[in-house]
Structures
1.
Amino acid sequence: MTQPLTTRPTVAGISVFPFRLPPPLCAFLFVIVLLVATFYTLHHPEATTSLFSRNPHNVLRLRRLFISSASNATISSYLRALTRRPHLAGTKPSLDTLNYVLNHFQSLGLETHVAEYEALLSYPAHISVTARFSNMTTVEFDLNEPVVYDVPEDDSSSSSPVVRPYHAYSPSGSAQGNVVFVNHGEERDYRALESIGVSVRNCVVLARKGDSLGRGAIVKIAETKGALGVLIYAENDGGGFGGIERGTVMRGIGDPVSPGWPGVVGGEKLRLEDDRVTRRFPKIPSLPLSLHNAEIILASLVGAKAPVEWRNSGRVGPGRTVINMTYQGEMKMKKIHNVMATIRGSEEPDRYVILGNHRDAWTYGAVDPNSGTSALLDISRRFSLLLKSGWRPRRTILLCSWDAEEFGMVGSTEWVEENVVNLGASAVAYLNVDCAVQGSGFFAGATPQLDGLLVDALKLIQDPDAAGLTVEETFKSQNNIIQRLSRVDSDFSGFLHHAGIPSIDMYYGADYPVYHTAFDSYDWMIRNADPLFHRHVAMAGIWGLLGIFLADEPLIPFDYTSYAAQLQAHRDALSKLLQGKVSVNPLSMAIQEFSLVAKEASDEAKKLKKQAYRQNDVAAASKRRELNDRMILAERGFLDSEGIKGKEWFKHLVYGPAAEPESKLGFFPGIADAISMNSSEGMIEHEVWRVARAVQRASKALRGGFT
């Protein structure tokens, strides 16, 4: 646990906070251990591996060394450097963060390289929104954000402008029409409007962003209803500062002109008019709006009263309020850069544990994503200290800094597409952290075989907000649960939904008010989300320990009995929803078989674990390797080569994006889509069979051998 420091740093002359660092005695002892280890290694190179030889005592020693080397002051310095300027992907300032991360990895002596791609990115050239009210007055809304940044006066590097609020990949054009408020813009909201006789055809719709639909889905549904344009506002309003939430409205993820294959430099690129490209973009323009401007429009509306469940006592329109909105954008081919650091495994270098975070930001990115970047840099620093002490992981660890995530997970998706075969053969797991710290409280999503491992890591890290308690204890006391990863909102998507790699996504804080606004700055972080950087330290500790567990344990710590239990719970929820109209027996039988195979694998692992640290036991090592391979491949069984209907790039039939949140299923996306689209019973039954076959494939992979 970190301890207080007596000095108090300042930012722009303002006293900020006391950092907590390891006490002097602990720091001194840690340095002595490193010096002794380094001296011994230099004079006895043949004995390097014995410093961290594979035995339970050294496993505990390794974990203690990793945890004790935490430094919140160091993480703070990383975040300060990364957020000095806005660094939108494809712009010149983004190269500064690229070089910062690259130089950091190289300075630690890590094997480092850059994977470069070309991608079509979208930028604003001109935006405007004007309203004409019933009294014939006209207002042209200010679409800029007020500047309240706390930046040192001598910091000339902070002069780069913040990109104006816009929706990336919105089509250029103008829309003029009466306004209709559509709540969150979901299908059920339009049904509610229809029930009171309100149509949005040839109107401009105003939507408030909710938790269920992303921007692209809001615009897509409005387009199908005949709307001419869309304005979207967020109720958090940048914490009362007048912030405006940027974002993308592209459908799907990855580079739109190289769909399904990597956008390597000099590779095939589709033309903009190609149907495979145009289908990714909306047909009507959209823009983000501040809460203040949205409230002016809402107050002017007449017509039918908003439904009670909308939490809006006003009117929905249409009335005599007319909106004229214009967006002119530019589509540009840009080079993007993923930075990769590799720590080679000593015994299984062909098996990979991958830790990833994206680096690009809409503005300054202190929360999204550079709180995660700072944690990743600190993990690399701590790993380098362990390497100097003689440690070498059993399996290879990759530390990945992705580019262009904000445009639709572009950097990570292109890398997954380029390496999908090797990932399928050798990737153990992908550990993602996007926004490491948004506020208080630990949250996580994972594929079920990783649940127990995540809990084990939480038990070793002291809670940053509750003295004397571990993160696991507070997580449990708050009745939090590990979520499932069907959402498509960060870089784990390509790994799990396309390549079938077991994945975890973690963050501190359920939400934060400056999301994608110009106020997501270092100053906001130290004043609001994590003044002492204790939560950053906790996240780096959890993330790094998970990497060590997966890279070092002789038997990969997967628990497929947890997966079997989760599948059974999913099956029960589906059966309840279908109410006997469609049989789920094929799925029930497949899950029953999977449960038996998972129990067999668990029993086998328990037996082999007793021999895990036995030296020179070739037979036991061979059996461990064979079981590990089966556990790695089991997740791939849930993939289907045809993918999800209408979203074929997404291959995972248990976890993936469903078209409509009203399905009430956060799993089995193909079945969920068939239900929400009122498909025939035969079509729903076909989707049930597809999932059943996927579960059977996973069972066969986990059991091994052939029929």
Note: The longest strand covers residues 111-132.
2.
Amino acid sequence: MRKWVLSGILATEETYLSHLEALLLPMKPLKAAATTSQPVLTVAQIETIFFKVPELYEIHKEFYDGLLPRVQQWSHHQRVGDLFQKLVRQKERYKSRAAWALLYKPVDRVTRSTLVLHDLLKHTPTGHLDHPLLQDALRISQNFLSSINEETTPRRQSMTVKKGENRQLLRDSFMVELVEGARKLRHVFLFTDLLLCAKLKKQIGGKNQQYDSKWYIPLTELTFQGPEETEPLTIPQVPDEELDAMKVKISHLRSEIQREKRANKGSKVIDRLRKKLSEQESLLLLTSPSMPLRVYNKNGKGYGFLLSSDYERAEWREIIKEQQKKCVKTSSLTSMELQMLTNSCVKLQTVHHIPLSINKEEDESPGLCGFLNVIVHSASGLKQSLNLYCTMEVDSFGFFSSKAKTRLFSVSSPPPQEFEIELEGSQTLRLLCYEKCYNKTKQNKEDGEGADRIMGKGQIPLDPQTLQGKDWQRTVIPMNGIEVKLSVKFTSREFSLKRMPSRKPMGVFGIKISTVTKRERSKVPYIVRQCLEEIERRGMEEVGIYRVSGVATDIQALKTAFDTNNKDVSVMMSEMDVNAIAGTLKLYFRELPEPLFTDDLYPNFAGGITLSDSVAKESCMLNLLLSLPEPNLVTFLFLLDHLKRVAEKECINKMSLHNLATVFGPTLLRPSEKDSKIPTNPTQPISMGDSWSLEVMAQVQVLLYFLQLETIPTPDSKRQSILFSTEV
């Protein structure tokens, strides 16, 4: 495990050294030109631009050269602590304010090294000779980061106002404001005495960044609950199809940029592609948030923001309410004071860029694509026993969405619950803990929230280097006095999507659908009929049905029951959370040795959906569908009718036809391993720019096409078989 952690730091050091080498290349000719009659830059300017770069290169080169042979000749007794000690001691010389301003990246390296030292200590026995050395290196590194924070935070986040009072910036973020039904991108600043909403001006002719003030509310006058007559916020919804089309374009542009880089094409081509990418990402960030956050001034005038997650909304509410307890004086500003405050935001801001690809570092992780297994072991810290549940959110394409929900549990004895969450370029896992309220009439008036109350929240980064191993990683998420213990394990795309035939010939999972229906003497497998019947009975109004993950242990229990033909399976299902039943159905289709749409016909479906002529497309797609083997066709039509009925309750369950196609498309169409186009390099996390993303979008479009057809004409013989057979 120690060698695995060190291999990760070697890879990042190698990347960092290559960046420093690239900086050093132009330094020598610029220095030589500085002594001529027509210098490009003065010596002082060169010293400023390349501040400490040669020294940094030497420090990291020495560290890398020392670490590499030790990792290559690894043994259980190998020592590396002395190398880390020397590295962090040399970095201490850069903790002056001037160095901090110019050396954000080196300080970021210290932060990463600190995390690596934590990991190394976890896997180094206390009796090992390396243990005291690593402890000392960690102490030095932590002291260094603390001193940086002490020196820089007041300078960057505060300003003096009249009468010598100190106004500090507590939080800032780019947010979407809803203005007269239109979405507008804003930069919101929370100070110790007021909330300021500003608009970033367009930069023209190389001018410095500037802000325009849109409005502000003193914290003493700010409320989250408007007057009784306040109209509900009407949120303009962007169709899921449009959002998905943006994601397709983004994935395609990312792939093109990587292809051009590998081909060493001119920078103009890449710049043009990056501009298009930024436009699409900006549009997606503007149109995707839909969770309202409203604030009101003392006159009852409301301002509405749209956020992507309950976590973010809770963060803003908490920090504002906490500061309001400390704020006793109303701050009204003159127009001049407001202008000065707005101008100061350029220097005070902590969030400098909209979260777009163009604003990311070259070596920054593109995020993880695959499946994350999460076990919620326990929750402790509450003084009284409550009915609690947790939800999990992960990010994708710059915004968060809820992916899993635990069963209700009492804080005194929460049972372990396991989930499988799909990741799409994800970098963070968030956890929210709610108290369940059974009084349906008790509706929170703030933004039309439900009555369930957030008791705590926390998050952990999804670090590719830490999670690329096959071992479970244990962690604790502290949140508002509650501690939730988790284990997480990541499975990359190429391993998680294999269709593996079952070794249990009498089971149903991993067995050909024709074999199962023949054995059961039915048209549709028993497992499909049972799951759909139970979901239709009590899951049609469940928010996020099929999208929200069920408890993995419940899903595995149902899988075993169906595989062993357990007579009590219907009783088990009636006692389980409906999301576990939905998860069992999805798992059944995902583990078929061949997709429901078959390997042979998959390329034809993928080609047919791209036809531009609607008549030709319908003819092609219907002919392909009716070419499926009868058990596949009958099962698909049975499922299709059910999914349409689910979508009819979209206003309650939030599952549109498109959402359902997104969930089931890859499950029903993804080809077997031998036909998959997914790359199989296990050393590289699969990014959203890979061909997999575009392939999945095509699978979604195929299923969506059939979901949107009002009727599917089938030959009389098959229609009779499907509709009137008592064996279905």
Note: DSSP finds 26 helices and 16 strands in the chain.
3.
Amino acid sequence: MEAGGDRFPKQRQVLILFLLLGVALAGWESRRYSVTEETERGYFVANLAKDLGLGVRELAARGARVVSEDNEPRLQLDLQTGELILNEKLDREEMCGPTDPCVMHFQVLLKKPLGVFRAELLVKDINDHSPEFPEREMTLKIPESSPPGTVFPLKKAQDLDVGNNNIQNYDINPNSHFHVSTRDRGDGRKYPELVLDKELDREEQAELRLTLTALDGGSPPRSGTAQVRILVLDVNDNAPEFAQTLYQVQVPENSPVGALVVKVSARDSDSGTNGEISYFLFYTSQEISTTFELNTLSGEVRLIKKLDFETISSYELDIEASDGGGLSGKCSVAIEVVDVNDNSPELTISSLTSPIPENSPETEVALFRIRDRDSGDNGRMTCSIQDDLPFLLKPSEENFYTLVTSGALDRESRAEYNITITVTDMGTPRLKTDPALHIGSVSATDRDAGANAQLTYSLLPPQDPHLPLASLVSINADNGHLFALRSLDYEALQAFEFGVGATDRGSPALSSQARVRVLVLDANDNSPFVLYPLQNGSAPCTELVPRAAEAGYLVTKVVAVDGDSGQNAWLSYQLLKATEPGLFGVWPHNGEVRTARLLSERDAPKHRLLVQVRDNGEPPRSASVTLHVLLVDGFSQPYLPLPEAAAEQARADPLTVYLVVALASVSSLFLLSVLLFVAVRLCRRSRAASLGGCSVPEGPFPGHLVDVSGTGTLSQSYQYEVCLMGDAGSNEFKFLKPIFPNNLSQDLGRKSEGSSVFQNSLGI
């Protein structure tokens, strides 16, 4: 009672602790802090100790630390003051590119107990970039017949800033023919259009030059300029027209180089050179020009570089179709990159405790975070460890996991554990973390100094061309640690050798080589396989046992093998289930099934035995086999199959039917010969009794002994008691009770292959 009384207060204390932790977590909401880009290092962001409601000492005692999503140390927590400060100058464009707002997610980690607090840092943009046009000069060819109000698209400028600091307006120097209109696309970006105010006259002025200015909304505003060269063309009545003004396509990110993305098509009603269309990319950035290729004649857009959904998820292409007369049309192509499961999950360990004390349950071993760069199901993950280890994985917020002991450990029983954490995503096909296992190390020494003594380790090409060394092992070039890259199968590869090299950084570089031999230890990964009796779904094998069998009579023998080696292949046999317990037994070391006692008339004629074959591995593996046993009065008794066996035999191969018919024919001939022989003997005896012939009485005949001498293939003489029934409609001859000599009865009491041959020779 006293021990139980001491335990309950401790449980209440633990419950109160978790309750307080839950209240603390429930009261914390994701905080957002802000800072302006280009702010100097050491800038005060927030007082985390105050926001968390913790004292500075408690913050330090619990090992508080700041972890960002990309593992970049942009923020620093001062444990002396509890203040969150900038660790480096931030560049919003480098961090987020065109994404607005630019938010950096980070977590505050606390230990003892574990706490994870989410927070965000908003990086505000400043106007530190000026608009830039892709070209210093752009050329427009405008027919002189163009009416006022005609709109001509111009190439837009690019500004790396966002929001009001991005481009807000376009302007052009004053002239009598054109003005610029600023249009706003659905994505919020603005682009310029040149609007014709007054008809052109090529004979009066064949070329115009204008200055286009892009202005952002910063304070003070920044600007960029480009020259617009306008060539006035003679009349060309029809401009090319695209079949669609907007093409929308989806392209898997694993599409090969050269794959067709889209084919655009335009037509021109003019003839001759004025109707010949060529296609061009109207506006190209470096990313577009290095990723896509446009065929100027066919309008096909093809890949010239592999796509990566995680880097860029969409593209927008502007394609211009120009005819021979200088007229053009424009269309847009929106390309959506479809994510495929091409990124394996990543695992980052934040803290690791090793060694750990024994006899300490719920000990925290490691804290780690998992991440998958894919999206949707491809980015959803599951985390697991081996089932046979005394450890547990406890999930936390933001894909954090804690590895803890599931119970008290005993160093004397096991002093070391090798734990493999496997992270698998839900994509198709499913990807998982690389199960690299440290298997050993190589080390070399160099008596030189400085760079001449700095060594680099490498794997040498394998001498055996059939050995896939690159997929088996890897080596750390800096420290010589060797890792197994995949699971090794002892049954397929028991040992292999490879060469390693160590090269210094001197000039000339000197090197040395060594051989490494890896011995694969067998694991119990194969279950026993039963060779006899076969369990292949065909008609079950039935073992016949005479009721006169003594205790220890050999019924059959279960034969099994195991693909493993050593003690993993040591097999033992056990009787799991029997129709009548205690009647049969299985020898544990050789699989022999024997009778455990004398049989009696009260024993059921049909028995089913379930035998288990178990190996000696850790953990052990097993297989089971079902035996059917039929008790008969003697081996001369006709074999009666089990009901379920009869159903299977009815569907047996036709060859079995032919064998049965042949056996029945031979047996019939044999019985007929014996019957004639007996009839002749009886007739002779009747004549000897002066009856003058052979007569058949009305009732049952008295028993007689048929004596078969040992002059045939049998080694001794045998006698059978024969009974002929005169009123059965047909005379039948049966072997009822064989009368064996003493030594022969002992031989037939043993189940062997010879007994089967003997039965067949008698036609049983």
Note: Residues 654-688 form the longest helix (35 residues).
4.
Amino acid sequence: MKFQSVLKVLSGLVFTFPSVYAKSQDYARHLELSLLFYEAQRSGPLPASNRIFWRKDSMTDAGADNGVDLNGGCNDAGDNVKFNFPQAGALTLLAFSAYKWQEGYKEAEQWEYIKDAIKWGTDYFIKCHTGKNELYGQVGNGSLDHGEWVAPEDMTYEHPSYKIDASAPGSDLAAETAASLAAAYLVFKDDDPAYAATCLKHAKELYEFADKYQDTYTTGIPDAQGYYRSYSGFKDELVWGAAMLLLATGDESYRAKADAIWDYPYNKHDPDYFLNSGGPISWDDKKACSYALMYMVTGEDKYKEQAFNHSDLMVNYKTTPGGLWFDTNLSAWGSNRYASNAAYTVAMVASTMDASDAKRKQYVKFIQKQIDYIQGDNPAKVDYVVGADPSSPKSVHHRGSSGTMNAMAEPPFNVFPLYGALAGGPDGNDKYTDDRTNYNSNEVALDYNAAYTGLLAFLIQEGLNVPDPEQTWEGAWPPKEKDGEINLKLNFNGSNEFTPTVSTTGGLTCGGWCVEMDLTSTGATLDNVWGGELLKQEGNKFVACAGWGKGYLDGKGTEQNFYFRVKPNGSMKEPTEAFVYCNGYNRGDKYLVKVNGGGSEPYGWTKGICKPAHICDANGNYIKDSGVINKSTSGGSSPKTKTTTIKKTTTKAAEPTSPSSSCFATKLGYGCCTGCEVNYTDDDGAWGIENGNWCGIPDSCNKEPEPEPVKDECFATKLGYDCCSGCDVNYTDGDGAWGIENGNWCGIKDSCSSTPSTKCFSEPDYPCCPSGTATVYTDESGAWGVINNDWCGISA
């Protein structure tokens, strides 16, 4: 890197005083960590490239209560709810920063990761857009979820899904989602134009929905009222969404939409008054970023005045004694978040200015001061980014990371590192306490990291990055696998009761544990389990998990126990082995344990140097792109280079996964994939990943594409959409019946809609279904379908 000469000069000084000051200007390293936080927040089925070892699939039936697939997206904060309004706001800031400060991401080698983070969110938002005027905006019930303290993988309570539509609209939610998709279009338009076009199409539709049916989204989703109510109303999102679409399309009609609100003579005390904002942007308030963006797009004076007035206000705002931007009311909860938000719009405006401009230098100095404060240049000498420094918070308010059954439970520090999370921050006097129960100072959330992440890219692009020395302290990224053992003692009383104890050694810690035992060959049957949770039982096999307060295994040999009783059937033999799940049944590593000190070994997985194993090579060197989901557009090294390191998790080279298949990879010493999913492409051919190993895409996958069907005529062509090839109806509005093919809306052809002249049995109580509607229920009346979430009768 170009900063190596600086590193050589500074490295000795940094190593000389490691405990005196935690401050860091390695914005690239912190950027990598910040994007890891978004990976830790993912919901749904996780990709094979997942880098967060303590995260597994969760909430995989999201939307099932309403018959829709709402997998994906991210949990909001330390809870397990997907609140789409703040999630969309965070994604818009991330996507815009990737568009505007792309070189910063690339210089930090995080370009593929920011694209993955954005696409994980936009894929989810596209799923949520289930009708032209229908958008799901939340999965999970806030009060129900916040009454529980469990990891997302261990959820057993309901997580209902909620939507807005024409009858209960939400302009704030729909317009912010449109803004995020329009910003994503700008990111992907060169690397993946087809996907970019899909994002833009949904953005346009959602903005039209937001503008046509105006209301606040909590009308349709009242459960969000107590968590993310839009106090600023929805006019700011309508301007923000219009500005982003103006940037993406150049369509002046969006400027007219923004100006209709901008120029309206609201009273200054009206909640919809748009100009002269006195505060920073937030998940709720989009006024200031709208000022900056409208000026960036047009360069006109009326927008410039608002953009610069607001930036000057932020730069000269009150701060803590140590220099953190601070508002007495707002900053009481998540001060680091608001300092970053205040600086983000200043960075937007600074990006329009000449490098020699004195005011620009003042702006950049302010931005850098806020980030440097967060990264350790503060009176508390704390780097507020989890996992960045030994001084970083260790007890942020986060269920999954805690590894405990209660926010106040032992241990007081989190068992699992939530790398990259930006902790809430200090009070107005720079005081900070690392306490899991204090969500004012130790909350983490999607919106906390959003502006901060973008500012890191901005500062790197400004040439201000100063690399830190290699981080070798215990707990630094990447996490290392422990070599400790799991011990299981049965402690049989010689009659019919066992008091098993579980412990770990060698620094192997477990945030929760379960024991799986099979009594079939013992000559006894299970009678009862207590002192722990009987998670499941199938015949003589059972799984018992840690009881309350017994979940943490400290790696120092401290024993935790439970009890079980059996019914002997004649002579009885003690079990000789069992499975122990370190970190719980649903997200833990499975070990085969020989009882009473016989040793333990991984079962069904291979231990590597790092955790998870695939993120490092055989020498423990971190593989920079090991977590990239889609390497097909990666500018990194070839699969051959990466393959030798990924294969460290196997004891021998992978055999061809399908002996009968043929592919180019066999000549290079790799197997052929069993499927056709492409993860990476280079000059050799298309590569996939199976069982943690690179494999070549079989020749049989490279079939000639099917010729495109001749386009049919239907009402949709006049509206800019294609006609469907089939007749399956997904949505109906005043224009006609719509289907979805290849992720895009299409119009149902006239030939599909020919119905008998006679009325169907369901009228007048329910309408007749359009032709081609699938049967979902049948009773004595006839066959029923569903259109627009209501029953309809299928004509015989």
Note: The two ends are 71 Å apart (CA to CA).
